[in-house]
Amino acid sequence: MRTTVLRGGDLVDGTGAPPRPMVDIVIEGDTVRSILPSAPRPAYGTVDEILDARGLLVIPGLINNHTHGTAYGPLFPSAHEGLPSERVRANLDRHLLEGTTTVLCVDGFVTAEAAARTADDHPMRVRLASCNTPACLRAASIADGAGLTEEIRAFTAHRALAAGAVALGEIGAGHTLGGGGASYLYIPAEVSRRTGKTITPRQADAIKIAVLGRHISSSSFDRDAVEEALVGAGLAEHLSVTQARALVSEIVLPAFDIALDGLTEAADYARRADVPVLVHNAAASMSQVAAIAATDVRLIAGHSNHASFDPREALRHAERLKELGATVDVSTFDTFGARRLTTGPELLYAMLRDGLIDTISTDYAGGHHDPILLAVERATEAGVVRLPEAIAMATANVADAVPGLAPRRGRVTPGAVADIVVTDPARLSQVDTVLIGGAIVVSGGRRVTAVERAEVVEAYDDR
Ligand SMILES: [Zn+2]
């Protein structure tokens, strides 16, 4: 069995325990065997490789419970046409280079066969969630459904769970519940089709909220606000208020109530199958999510910092969910970078400061998500959370919240699988090395193939 020593790094082990400076991690095969105070190289006699981590931070590989576009097959719980396979692999590369070693793909209509093909093409551990329950399938068919085939329709949640799916999710979504997916995808596309004009996600969001409000209800229609939003989007000459109201309503409303019913239905399925249900938690779905939390299902309240919440509403809601025993998840979205829909980290920070967060994921943000480690870095700098707790939110807490997702992973402790990330302590998102099951898959901040791996080991040996 191959023995590797990861030498001299400062370890934050994922359990929430304080950092352990200067340790050597002995890896045998795919397993962490022991963790010792750092010793000079000769102490280990003949080992197959020694990776020098002195001055660097060592953490468990991240486990991301909310990703889209990370497996071949329909995109999103609206069953949008799947991304080209090279784009899926590029998404997986990006997650891997950000220090993630396991992703839960919550697109929801990916088949086991498509997941197996994805796994053949990429070292990332990709696990599936299913949203193929009757109501969610109907909502997807109405909202989009372009990626559905007979085979996919027949790959029901029951079959998916039997084939290894680890959760139900994402139940409801921005694409079926009038959330981000409507704003960055469906509304801009329809506006462009009808007027030839391109609008930004934020402009589409403003029109949507003016027509239907944050909680999505036709009674929230605000004529003046629609007029203002149309002017803001440069559409005043191209769409009347009535036309805009019809356009948004026709995109959002037909699937909306069915998708809401899907939340309760999927929670029932999940309870019976004894798996977690991961739901789209946003202003539009919060009442249903709270009702599900009051039952005895294992609930992951996805992206509880969703931009559709009023900040105080989000905090109160998260508090309530936590009291009811739900896992409160937040997503990085595009909070620090693109900011196409989110406005900044204030809500995320407030939730961290109040101790309301269990897990951190990315979600998709129209393909513009920020790295989890960037959020951890900024939040620790801002003093709203300590590093060990923040790392636990992206590792051990996720493994515990979704038991089938990453067994024996999420912690760097003896006996755990050696999914390990080595990064710059001053710039956490500058990931240097990633190991999955003890094998190097990223080195020097770059994906390495099996062939290149031998050279990497040699380079380490020369240091
Ligand atoms: Zn969502």
UniProtKB/TrEMBL annotation:
Could you say which cofactors this protein requires?
Zn(2+)
What Pfam families has UniProt attached to this entry? Amidohydro_1
Superkingdom to which the source organism belongs: Bacteria
User: What Gene3D superfamilies does the annotation carry?
Assistant: Metal-dependent hydrolases, Urease, subunit C, domain 1
Spell out the GO cellular component terms annotated for this protein, sorted alphabetically and separated by semicolons. cytosol
Domain Amidohydrolase-related, residue spans: 57-441
SUPFAM superfamilies in the record:
Composite domain of metallo-dependent hydrolases, Metallo-dependent hydrolases
Which terms does the record give in the GO molecular function aspect? hydrolase activity, acting on carbon-nitrogen (but not peptide) bonds, in cyclic amides
Which protein are we looking at?
A: Amidohydrolase family protein
Q: Which organism is it from?
A: Nocardia bovistercoris
Q: What is the lineage of its organism?
A: Bacteria, Bacillati, Actinomycetota, Actinomycetes, Mycobacteriales
